[in-house]
Amino acid sequence: MSHILFTKDHEYIVVEGDVGTVGITDFAQCQLGDVVFVELPEIGKATKPGEQAGVVESVKAASDVFAPISGEVVEVNAALEDNPALVNEDAQGKGWFYKVKIADPAELEGLMDEAAYKALLDSHA
Amino acid sequence: MTDLPSPTPLHALHLGLGGRMVPFAGYDLPVNYPAGIIAEHLWTRENAGLFDVSHMGQAVLSGPAAAQRLESLLPGDLQALPLRRIRYSQFTNEDGGILDDLMATRLDAAGEKLFLVVNAACKGQDFAHLQANLPDLRLDILHDRALLALQGPKAAQALERHIAGVSALAFMAQQDFIWRGETLFVSRSGYTGEDGFEISIAADFASDFAETLLAEEEVQAIGLGARDSLRLEAGLCLYGHDIDTTTSPIEAGLNWSISKRRRAEGGFPGAARVQKELAEGVARLRVGLVLDGKAPAREGADIADESGAIVGRVTSGGFAPSLSKPIAMGYVAPRCAAPGTALSLIVRGKPLRARVTAFPFVPNRYHR
Q: In terms of domains, do B152 and B22 share one?
């Protein structure tokens, strides 16, 4: 059984057992516009919540992508290298960035569930 | 004083089209519409894109010997400018740096009336500069006129349906046309590298005119994002980025905009530096850069030679939709400025391989 959690910086993590799949939210890709390049973390990199773990480049600008939790990067989405537009087409699906082995499940409690994230977006609107 | 960005006469139209609005030079303008920057960019290269550039400053400078007098503030040759022709030039400072760049159109045979278009972010300063330095001339700032640009290979055929005769206008020429009783100042010019027009129209009629053009199948609305990527591919300077008060027209590679007479005679602010650079060479030169990889380099990235020495800095950079790869422009030491020179652009501490390329990145397709 997987579930999705969100950061206030518009990253998501889909948690399945002790592995999380991380990317940017559909709201974030919509704000960025056409994604032309994604710099992914290296496999084996140790992530820390709130620290940079990648960069997403739109036509206009570069934006940092922050890690939602502590862990170790175990896989990256190689498909983004040839087709960064996957982030626009399917941000919370085929446009994922990397998978992380979760170091401390307790950190997940600090993230937002779908309802809380939706409330955050509504407060922006 | 308020910091709220001003609406342009097309503001409601942008909102209706789903434009993503951003503050730009004091105005609330669309960075893109739902199609997105890449689609808007490619549409303009293949069809015709309509841009709201009403934020730009428009003015008419008039009075005895206006063309000659304006030459005291810029290196362009306005005395040799034929009637209804347009020149690109730059207001220079005493150090030979650039205060702003502009388009000047000669409106009368005597050279006593000129139409000026300047950058939005500089217009207050530019108009004050003109009034302070040419107090005997009259400056009429056209606050009540919008400015639209229709750009692309199908711009002429679309515009011709509404303004008979407009497609016969020469590149960098201007003519007045009547549309529904309103006088339009139509210039065959633009900022995309494509054929196209820039049209000054009374603010009250701008929205109707824009909607009339958007009803044509060749025409789509285009935002600031694609305006920037189109001009970057065309190798054109963006004021405040690629040219500023420290860069000279010669360093920027704008020599073509300074005639033989003006080079010899000088008589504009900073002429000594311009003449010295023409005679002895420059300390740095604006160049185009095409990156080997897929990661773009942005404004501010250092440029290194093959030994790793820093030889310059990127002033504009991004993804080129028509080339499907990242491109940039920046200033480098002259020894590194030859097309083909291998350089590195330092992005997030990593060197990205790039090669110096002659401007424009994408061939110009102006109307000739």
A: yes
